[in-house]
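Problem: given the chain below (429 residues), write out its structure.
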Amino acid sequence: MNKKDGYVVDTTYPAFFYKEMQPLWLNTVINFLGFKAIDITKSFSYLELACATGTNLLVCAINYPEGYFVGVDFNKDHIDKAKQSAQSLGLKNIEFIHCDFSAFLEKNILKFDFIVNHGTFSWISPAHQKNILEIVSQSLNDLGIFYLHYMCYPGSADLLPVQKLLNLVDQHNQASSLDSIETGKKLFCDLNDAGAFIDHPKIEAVFKTLEQRPAYLAHEFLTDYWQPQYSVDVHHQVHQAAQLAYLGSANPCENMDSISIPLKIQKIIHDTQAPALKEYLKDLARDAKQRADIFQRKPAAFKNADHLRVINQIDFKLLAKAPQNSGIRFKTVIGEIKAPKEIIAPLIECLSKKEISFRELLTLPAFKNNPIFLVETIFLMMNAHYVHPCSSTAEQVDQNKVNRFNQIMKKDKIQLRIMKDCATAIDSN
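Solution.
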């Protein structure tokens, strides 16, 4: 059997890591947006719905030994692999549960400070989407964060024809899901060679998507329920089901129109009063394909003085991939943004010497009396994997577990290693 409830089960989802789901990253973005966040220096709880083989949660559990982490997935192979990894690492603060969302909804009695779901919301049936939102409604604490990643319109509309083709191939294929992907890709290529997509303006982007690993493509495209969402509809569903407020995006740049919206469109959006319409206009302006939305239960906004005090205390660390002593061209949804050498070089020089706070960076000539400009720059560098906020609890992390995790990743040929100073993991290439 290749599917259960319309979803692929005969192949394991590849190991992916998403920095945007990590507690420190989420808290940093939330603080910059002007809201209080869960105190992750103490005990807290974190639930991932559709955790696959548990890579994100394993990173969390190692970096936050005082936290408690739960992963739920209905694919037994996923959960078996996750449990094996957790046991190998000697982790006692993590639990993996084999069940679907409806079963978890019925039996769960725990409350969580973070609930996250990446990707699958666009792949599963409306009934399971409803189950996710009911879990959030019942199980999220006050000030708790709900992170939801999903495919969205208008950008994902270009993938609808290829998804339908791959799904139909799978319906008539008696072999495995991976075989369906290869057969469908060949058919798509044959159609392209015959000129079927000659007038398709974004066909190159479609083919780039099809270059992803076959196991990933199987899980995304062979589902019977693949459907991008309108963000405004998702926000309405979340509010109606769980009474959560939308705060912003886990992708920092998308929280600032100045670095994510074409200049001529910014005024149109600024002059639009209706919040839902404004958000949809942003999706149109960005040709958004995916969203990583942050919602909060009973959000508490900082007063201006408190807001500045909190973000001033956030420390940042320069990552190995950051360019040295030169101007940077940041790739964004609105094209390249050039950071001149005279502005970016002093910033990189400071960061290369030590971890440094937002307050200290504000003393640099380019950012003096211009905190918004520094926020833009930091967000661009976070998105580009050049800087990362620093953890204040790194000394609590067991280095032996870090080393063991890194060894397992290397053995499995996964380019990922834990960076405990930032409570995350990074590409080891």
